[in-house]
Amino acid sequence: GAVVSQHPSWVICKSGTSVKIECRSLDFQATTMFWYRQFPKQSLMLMATSNEGSKATYEQGVEKDKFLINHASLTLSTLTVTSAHPEDSSFYICSARDGRTGLTDTQYFGPGTRLTVL
Amino acid sequence: AQTVTQSQPEMSVQEAETVTLSCTYDTSESDYYLFWYKQPPSRQMILVIRQEAYKQQNATENRFSVNFQKAAKSFSLKISDSQLGDAAMYFCAYRSYDNYGQNFVFGPGTRLSVLP
Predict the structure, then answer these.
(1) pLDDT tens per residue, range A27-60
(2) How many C-beta neighbours within 10 Å does residue B39 have?
(3) Minimal C-alpha gap between A50 and chain B (Å)
(4) Strands, E, within B19-87: which ranges?
(5) Residues with Cβ within 8 Å of residue B86, at least 6 apart in sequence
(6) What is each CA distance from A5 to A2, A108, A110, B16, B116, in whole angstroms?
(7) Is residue A103 scored above 70 in pLDDT?
(8) What are the residues of chain B with a beta carbon less than 8 Å away from any beta carbon of chain A?
């Protein structure tokens, strides 16, 4: 149980275009999902926290108009990188918090999405 | 704000041997959770083990065990009978106990190599 999927696993796009990344909890309801960014050989950096049905909470320094997050259902959150530029190239990872009693403290991670902006 | 430190950027261990990865953290909270996650070359983050701070007993999961020293704010991971598949980046993570601190604070990671 507690499987999180991400789609796509990798994407290459041209500068100026927008890219949408999906994060799904497959076998549980995720009341909260998290979006991280990871640069090569570095740790995970939290970008934003999204709760189902409400606006995402962005970390300091993360542009909310550039990284649009939507958490429309208990099993799906999307991250849209708008007007992507080469500096947005990175590995994006989502995680989901299992809302079931006794499991709310653990996050389960998706496999990540590698974004390359040309 | 909480911080997590992993002082060993890289470690290596011989196959079948035991290795210990260090993690220290700083917090003023009394209740919290601690985790070790593994990130193999596939980049998939995998939960290795979790510890609740209010439990004195060290968590164990098969070949993985922790040495949780609350007073010292230390949370080391011991891997016994190391296998080639254990080679990965290992991240220590902290999470506050209350619902407001839902996000994790990750350490910088330790890259573990397993030598055949």
Answers:
(1) 888 888 999 999 888 899 999 998 888 889 999 8
(2) 21
(3) 11
(4) 19-21, 24-26, 32-39, 46-52, 60-61, 64-69, 74-79
(5) B38, B79, B112, B114
(6) 10, 10, 5, 33, 33
(7) no
(8) 33, 35, 37, 42-47, 50, 52, 91, 95, 97, 99, 102-104, 106-109
